[in-house]
Design goal:
Blueprint (H helix, E strand, L loop, with lengths): L1 H4 L3 E6 L13 H8 L2 E9 L4 H9 L2 E7 L6 E7 L22 E5 L3 H12 L3 E5 L14 E3 L9 H17 L8 E2 L3 E4 L9 H5 L9 E3 L2 H6 L8 E4 L3 E3 L1 H9 L4 E4 L6 E5 L2 E5 L5 E5 L1 E4 L5 H4 L6 E12 L14 E3 L1 E9 L2 E7 L3 E2 L8 H18 L1 H16 L3 H6 L3 E10 L5 E4 L8 E5 L5 H16 L8 H7 L5
Bound molecules: flavin-adenine dinucleotide.
Length: about 500
């Protein structure tokens, strides 16, 4: 873990069980790994005075001394890292970009990314102002409901490992919200429509694999109750579920240190007397702060002066209320994802609702979509449903056909199958971009965007990663995974 995280420590406490009984916890290898995280002067303390621990610490460069113990111990150990050799600086995979102390921060865009950064910084004492061109969750994060779930791949790829760290962070935030009203960790069935197994084969052989608590092949009962054919390849994600993103945004913005300003479109940023100034289209200052974070979804591209390649991906979902469509429809119990996703049971507009998504329209930013594009999206979403949950697609076929016949936006909104659309933002490698824009040339300018189609899985983690880096804290995930999300990878 220490090698993966590479934190730099100012002080260390070695806790744990008795070195005599558990020598592995205290072996020279561990102490060497700890010393690699120290700078000259790092202080260390521990309750044990075991000879082997003292010797290993001394050999790794610590000046060790016994000090009077805390009852019931007669002695404790204290040490200072002060090797006879010049210690190598702790070099993580990412440069040190920490700031001296929390100050004021402007966040541009109040979606999942902006609200996650705001919450993470506000918790650490920053005074945060979130500016949004419209209002919170006005962009892609206005989605009525979406799925969060781990990603699986035969080789447990970078994205798979990132997704688990992301789900863990999302679920921590969700604990503060109303379960079953705004979110649920009911689990998600993944229908592998291409028939590839998904879950690495090695996970089936051992109980101790890293994904044991996360994903496994689905049982026949899980397939059956969710309308997935008995012979289909499917996996069951235990730590997964649905969320209403606007509720998550609202929850993250509720903090005494966060101020939200709507109708505040930022046209450009400039630096003046050590502070960042956000200007509107007329060049009038909207707000100023020590630090600024661009979290404006695809509009980040313009605010970043097209520094990196970002792609717009318009998405349309189809959604409605159970009571409005074929009442005999066999609704699955849990969300089903795979090629697209279905949230079959979610409270919406005072009734039971469903959300089915979604299209991926590359380089399209026009909103609302034209009548033709809306109709095409209904067809493509229905096709996805037919692949995911065939019996439900058959039952809803007539409802989708009627919705396609609505010839204007207003009749379409009264239809039993409604449409909702927004634009996602994706990077070239489909991973978020988190970190300083250019630490030297533009100190204090940060970015957190390109959540792609995984904002619910990755945004809370990205907010924590950004704040951890700004504070020089241990990273909330492996250094290699943090690097894969970082702006420095580009
Ligand atoms: C159809 C569809 C289905 C999806 N389904 C899922 C799903 O099931 N699971 C999942 O995890 N993700 C899903 N996503 C993706 C998810 O919605 C996004 O990843 C996430 O919402 C992105 O959040 P964001 O904060 O980066 O961007 P946004 O939510 O787009 O927020 C950007 C904000 O910035 C504001 N803004 C823009 N320009 C400016 C400016 N110049 N000045 C001030 N403010 C500005 C906007 O008003 C907006 O509020 C889906 C997306 C779509 C479109």
């Amino acid at each position: 873990m220490l090698r993966q995280q590479m934190p730099e420590a100012d002080s260390i406490y070695l806790d744990g069980f008795s070195p005599q009984v558990n020598p592995d916890l205290w072996n020279a290898y561990t102490i060497k790994a700890i010393a690699r995280c120290c700078h000259r002067g790092t202080r260390l303390a521990t309750w044990t005075i075991a000879r082997a621990v003292r010797d290993d610490l001394a050999q790794c460069g610590f000046d060790v001394q016994k000090v009077p113990g805390v009852h019931p111990k007669r002695d404790n150990l204290q040490a200072v890292y002060n090797p006879r050799w010049e210690p190598r600086p702790v070099r993580g995979l990412l440069p040190d970009v920490s700031v001296a102390a929390p100050g004021s921060c402007l966040i541009i865009g109040a979606g999942l990314a902006g609200s996650a950064c705001a919450a993470s910084l506000a918790r650490r004492g920053w005074q945060v102002t979130v500016l949004d061109a419209v209002s919170p969750a006005a962009g892609a994060s206005g989605l009525p409901a979406g799925v969060f779930a781990p990603h699986v791949s035969p080789d447990d790829s970078m994205l798979s490992r990132l997704s688990r760290a992301g789900v863990r962070a999302t679920m921590q935030v969700l604990q503060g919200m109303e379960r079953n009203a705004d979110w649920s960790d009911c689990g998600v069935l993944e229908h592998r429509v291409d028939a590839t197994p998904g879950v690495p084969a090695s996970w089936n052989d051992t109980a101790a694999h890293p994904g044991a608590d996360w994903s496994r092949p689905a049982t026949p009962a899980e397939r059956e109750r969710n309308g997935v054919p008995a012979d289909a390849v499917a996996c069951w994600h235990l730590r997964a579920g649905w969320v209403k993103p606007p509720a998550l945004v609202d929850h993250q913005l509720r903090h005494a240190n966060i101020r939200v300003k709507g109708q505040a479109r930022v046209a450009r940023l400039t630096r003046e007397s050590g502070q960042w100034l956000a200007l509107d289209a007329q060049g009038t200052p909207v707000a100023r702060a020590d630090m600024v974070i661009i979290t404006a979804g695809y509009d980040s591209h313009a605010l970043l002066q097209e520094r990196w390649h970002l792609q717009a991906l318009r998405g349309q979902i189809s959604w409605g209320l159970h009571a409005d469509v074929n009442t005999q429809a066999p609704w699955p119990e849990q969300p089903v994802n795979g090629h697209g996703n279905l949230v079959p049971q979610v409270p919406l507009e005072g009734g039971a609702g469903w959300v089915l998504g979604s299209t991926f329209e590359r380089d399209v930013t026009a909103l609302p979509p034209s009548a033709n594009d809306r109709i095409a999206a209904l067809g493509s979403n229905w096709d996805k449903l037919r692949d995911l949950v065939p019996p439900l697609a058959t039952a809803l076929h007539a409802d989708f056909r009627i919705a396609e016949q609505a010839d204007s936006v207003s009749t379409a909104q009264r239809s039993t199958v409604r449409s909702w659309s927004a634009v996602r933002c994706a990077s070239h490698d489909r991973l978020p971009i988190v970190g300083p824009v250019d630490h030297r040339a533009a100190p204090g300018l940060w970015v957190c965007t390109a959540m792609g189609s995984r904002g619910l899985t990755l945004s809370a983690l990205c907010g924590e990663l950004l704040a951890a880096r700004a504070h020089g804290e241990p990273l909330p995930l492996e250094a290699r995974l943090a690097h894969a999300l970082s702006s420095e990878r580009l």
